[in-house]
Structures are given as structure tokens and as C-alpha cells.
Amino acid sequence: MKWQQLPLGSIQTNCYIVENPDRSCLVFDPGGDAKKLINLLNTRGLKPAAILLTHAHFDHIGAVDVVRETYKIPVYVHKQEEKWLGDPALNGSQFFPIIEPIKVNPADHIINDEGTLKIADFIMSVYHTPGHSPGSVSYYFEKEGVVISGDALFQGSIGRTDLAGGNHSQLLKSIHDKLLTLPEDTYVLSGHGPVTTIANEMDSNPFLNGF
Fold it and tell me: Which label site among 49, 169, 176, 211 has the fewest CB atoms less than 10 Å from its CB?
């Protein structure tokens, strides 16, 4: 399995493309620039099987409908943010004047519980990691040693908690209980900024002192 980071949209949110040797792939958090993303997928001959969202803030969902319609694939989101997709007040887009309010059609699959998720030949674990937002989830590929953490954990930082449904203490608990328990050599594919590892964040992240 390979993965690629692709910053998209007005604030360069990281979209991730995870692919298997047969060229099938999953698209995580297509935040914008749909044409750029589709051109890359087509140029590389990739065959998307699904769109998975770590959460439903506007900068993670801007290209969802175009990519979904182009490839006729389903969208996954956590139940606590099911209504955020079509509500610019909840997804935050109405508060950012640099963009148009974003309304995305309902998701095809609702993530209700943690556990194993299998899509095509991809197998991952889903962890509910709220705090940045109520329905934030992280997707962990154990065999490959990769976790897609959305805006929960960054290199040297953590997600902001001053938006709707944010909770600082809950975020720290999510990071401690769900992410820092992963093997230390696990790569953390964050929603913004560079890739890091669990070990690096345990050793040097100033927001995690005391954990």
C-alpha cells in the first residue's frame, strides 16, 4: 500500500490518497481543488473506491460532491457530523468570507461505532477521536503503520478547539487514549502540515506534556 499527501483548497488542507498495487484507492478529506485532485487520479490511472472524512469542517469537504459524482463512489462520515455536510454554519464555511458557503450532499455511509472498516481490499481500524470536533475520527492502517488523524494531532501541535463542538480536554484524552497508544514508529498523516510519527510527538509536542 502506498499513500500520497496532496494539499488542497483555500487553506491547503491535506488530502490523502491511499492506494493498493491494483491501482484501487481511497480518498481522505478532499478539501477543495476538485479538478486538481481528479487530474492527478486520472493521470496516475487510479480507481477510487470511496471518500472517507476525518471530520466535516469546510476545508476537508469542499471537493466531496464533485469527486463522488465523477467516480460514483460512496462517502463516509461519523454520525455526530452527518448534518454538518449540508450546513454552512456547522461546517464553518459561512464564517470564512474568502470562500462561498459549502453545502455537501448527505453521506452514503454513517460511521456509528469504532472498529474494523473494510472497503474493497482496504482494511483499517476506525477510532473516534473527538475534541477538535465532535465527530472527528482517525483511520489506522496497522499493517502499514499509518494513521490518518485529521485535525486531532499535528507535528508539534494539536487541533484547535474554539470552533463548534470543540473541547480541549476531550481532545487531549482522545490523543492520549487512541493515538499515543499506537506503536511509536506509526506515521501520523495530519490534516495540515508535514507528516510526523507517534514517537516524535510523544517526545517533543509541547501540548502533550504531562501525558
Answer: 169
